[in-house]
Automatic annotation (TrEMBL):
Record GO cellular component, one term: membrane
Listed name of the protein: Histidine kinase
Transmembrane segments: 13-31, 43-64, 84-102, 109-127, 147-167
All copies of domain Signal transduction histidine kinase internal region, residue ranges: 188-266
Amino acid sequence: MAEKLTSRQKWQLAIRLLLLYSPLLLYVNLPDSVRNPARLLEVSPFIVVFILIALGLYFIWITATDWIQNQLFNWFGDDFLLDFSWLSLVLTMLISLVLAVLYTKVFQLILMALFTLFIHSGFAQVPKPHTLPFTPDVFAYLQRVNNVFNLVIILSAFYLTIISRSYQQLKNVQIRAERSEKEAALSQVEALKHQLSPHFLFNSLSILTSMVHEDADLSEQYIKQLSKVYRYILEQRDQELVPLKTELEFIHSYTFLLQIRFENKFDVVIEITPSQLNQYRIAPLTLQLLVENAVKHNRMSVQEVLRVRIYCQNDVLIIENPWQPRDQTELSTGVGLRNIINRYALLTKRTIWYGKQGESFIVKIPLLS
């Protein structure tokens, strides 16, 4: 959808038209008898009013041109006036011709009204038409010249408006691209911080140290699952998307480590059909961040198990856990969820939803085919 010009942009275009064409119009229309310094000073109030009226009308006509162009864009598409097809050229000429005729009539009416006002008020000795050294043929010629000038002015306004809009759209695209690059870089940094959490590694090694002499088989399983977790982190951290099946296999290993750590207080329930596993893709480590958030912000016990449920509704992955905040809550920076939102903003126009529903905290992640 094409964007409308701002008032500031319209005034800038009006001033450009004024600076470009007003000197030529004055040069063509002022007779030789008025071009000497003394006479120019005498009619200067009239010239100033002429310029101000022209500036105001340019702004109004640029506003009308902007509105007309937006209607054309809505009917024929955003590139209609930029491809210079015969239809666009003919419509541009017809629209400019109509606007030029209207501009000429309005400008003449306003100018004659002020001309009459100046004469009757005695504010300035403006030369009367019959005292000017112009014959009827010369007047007719000047009228035709002014009509041509007005058509050229409106055509210039038409194309300057298109150019200004195109420049603004290009600038917006560049700004969005720069913002996307910045967000991507920040997301990668934040994701890396979470992926290689020193606390998680420290806790895992501490648990392994206390377990290795008590249960050798379980310790071996623990080491295998820990290696799977970090192998996945190293292999997938630079990928934009991974199969949902691959991400859930990683969550299985990650959950195993957390279950050893919290014993019978924590669990993850995955309710995904085989067809859904192979059909959809997801940003890597999305689920790890959400499971980690659930553990971080909720209390758990044998009587009050923290059970994270992962399931699909159509093409949306839902991560749900009971809302049971810790008594001494850890200050939330929101970095984890913000990281996921920023990453998905680069992948799809569909948004992530999260919030409390009843007694549960829910996050809805759009799945990508």
